[in-house]
Amino acid sequence: MQRIGVYPGTFDPIHNGHIDIIQRATRLVDKLVIAVAINEDKGPLFSLQERVEMMRAETERMTGPDVASIEIVPFKNLVTQFAEEMGAQVIIRGLRGVADFDYEFQMAGMNARLNPRVETIFLMSEASNQAIASKLIREIARLGGDVADFTTPAVSAKLSKAFAR
Q1: Is 42 a catalytic residue?
Q2: Which residue from 4, 12, 82 is spatially nearest to 40, judged by alpha carbons?
Q3: Catalytic annotation on 165?
Q4: DSSP 128
């Protein structure tokens, strides 16, 4: 049986913390489905298509014999329903600290009630990535700050272009 994991998020934009979780998750499963949430309620800076394209560009070089295949798929339904549709056994979530844990603990409990066949796995962010958040990166970029330490050069350039509009 193939082990399939789902890593859901808005990824607006993808940053080094996300990349760290993705790289480590690909060693735990045979296939990783990165579920890019449509989530218009959050008012994303980048369109769904832009976020999917950025994710593809940042993950295409993650290959090798010990690395899971990666599929990027937009979604708008409950993550437990999406996981079932993808044939996934696990939902992978990244944790930065205690504040994330409180929220994610509640979410994992609700997801377990909605679909007990899908487990939630938490991966702690590397220490160097624990302060990184997409919301903060967008704010720094909007105010003309340098986000090079928090994301890739390609994503940093897309942020600069987005705020130059």
Answers
A1: yes
A2: 12
A3: no
A4: G
Length of the chain: 165
The overall pTM is greater than 0.70: yes
18 assigned to active site: yes
Give the chain's mean pLDDT: 93
- What CATH number does residue 112 fall under? 3.40.50.620
Reduced to 3 states (helix: H, G, I; strand: E, B; else coil), residue 89 is: coil
Within a domain: 150: no
118 φ, ψ (degrees, to nearest 5): -115, 120
- The catalytic residue among 134, 138, 156, 158 is 134
Residue 98 in domain = yes
Q: Which domain holds residue 30?
A: 4-127
Q: Is residue 117 situated within a structural domain?
A: yes
| Residue 15 falls in the annotated catalytic set | no
Active-site residue identified among 15, 18, 138, 158: 18
Confidence band for 163, pLDDT divided at 50, 70 and 90: very high
Mean pLDDT of 42-48: 89
